[in-house]
Write a structure and sequence with these properties.
The chain has 145 residues and is mostly helical. Helix content is 77%, strand content 0%. It holds the Pfam family TPR_2.
């Protein structure tokens, strides 16, 4: 861990991250965002903080910023299924269907035995995204409406 503040121990960081997650779960996105931004300043190499920050941005429809955070989280850990699924959802919402399918497919590849609950969600979203892409190819005018 590249914790730049020697006064803050790894257990303290974990506790603070758990507090941020609780804020997120309670819909207190602004408070969660502040926590994850502070954690990111303390340890910019921890991908979870980027993923969590991206999720808080996604929750308030800040798609471009969330995409930046998910991209960075995946750069730090290309097996981060939460970042991949969330980035896929951002791509879907931005109309980037092929990119979304790529991210969802990657999640399924990372968990072929379907052990992670996120994998089933990725399978469903990938199928829906593929169907949307096929419909757009069959009827290009309908996809522009």
């Amino acid at each position: 861990m590249a914790n730049s503040d020697p006064e803050v121990s790894p257990p303290d960081l974990l506790q603070y991250a758990m507090q941020g997650f609780q804020m997120y779960e309670q819909g207190r996105y602004d408070e969660a965002r502040v926590i994850f931004q502070e954690l990111l300043e303390l340890d910019p190499t921890e991908g979870y903080y980027r993923t969590a920050l991206g999720a808080t941005c996604l929750a308030v429809d800040e798609l471009d910023e969330s995409l930046e955070h998910f991209n960075e989280a995946i750069r730090l850990n290309d097996s981060d299924t939460a970042a991949l699924i969330n980035r896929g959802e951002v791509h879907l919402r931005l109309g980037n269907i092929l990119e979304a399918v790529h991210d969802f497919t990657r999640v399924v590849e990372l968990d072929p035995e379907n052990k992670d609950p996120l994998t089933e969600r990725a399978r469903v979203l990938a199928a829906a995204a593929r169907q949307s892409a096929e419909e757009a190819q069959r009827d290009p005018e309908a996809s522009q409406e």
